[in-house]
Structure formats: C-alpha cells, structure tokens
Amino acid sequence: MIKTTYEEELNRNGRFTYTNVGVSMLPLLRQGRDMFTVEKKSGRCRKYDVVLFKRPPASYVLHRVVKVRENDYVILGDNCLNKEYGIKDEDILGVMTAFVRNGKEYRINHKGYRIYSAVWYFLYPLRRLWMKFRILCRKILRKNR
Hints:
Blueprint: H1 6-13, E1 15-19, E2 35-40, E3 50-55, E4 59-68, E5 73-76, E6 84-87, E7 92-101, E8 104-107, H2 111-122, H3 124-143
Antiparallel strand pairs: 1-2, 2-7, 3-4, 3-7, 4-5, 5-6, 7-8
C-alpha cells in the first residue's frame, strides 16, 4: 500500500475523507468514530471554518478559525485551552465541508452547524475556566495521593 500525504491527496482529487484522530475537536468530532471531509482551500477562510493546516515540521491539525485577520488567522480546537496565532493562508491545506456521525452526513453550510459553531466559540471563556479548574483539581488529587 502506498501512503500519500494530505497535500498529495488534495492535489490529486481536490478532497478527501478521513477518520478523526485526536480529541482536540470534541464534541464535534469523536476520535476513531466520526469522519470528516476536507476540500482543497480556495480563497480566504471565514470565521468558524474548520481548517486542516500543517504545523512545522510535519504535523497536521484540524481546528476552527476563530478570527480572520488581514495577514493571518487565529485558530482554536473546540476542546483546546489555547488559541494559535499567526496561521497563514499558505499553512492551510483545506477546509472541512462535511462530517459523518453515526452514519449520517452533516454539511457545514447547514444552519444548525453554523449556530453550533458560533455558540461553542461564544462559550469559550467559560469552557476555558472549566478546563483550567479540572486541571487544577487533578493536580491537587495527584499531590494528595
């Protein structure tokens, strides 16, 4: 079996579908259970787009655009504490256009998905506090063992 990179697949077919790996996009994408489709990027990304980008030297990340700036983007995984700054257009390989959960496909232009994206990011300050609190509790519990 010949292994291809995401870039090669996007250049060859313009899109690919893959099973989610990792927990950074929970609760939207569940590791090993949900699939997502990425299409080759054309033009600038929009706020709340979920993009596949390459982090040097060779790691691929699927996260959400939370701010579009003149020369770059601010990106955040749905299940992450910290935003990533300075992601440029040339770093972004493609944009998620759909995902499959429990055998049903959801398109990202669906109104319900767009509402989810906006609400999920709106709750980011509360989610961040909750995650920090959980981390602190784990540290305290480990220390007291």
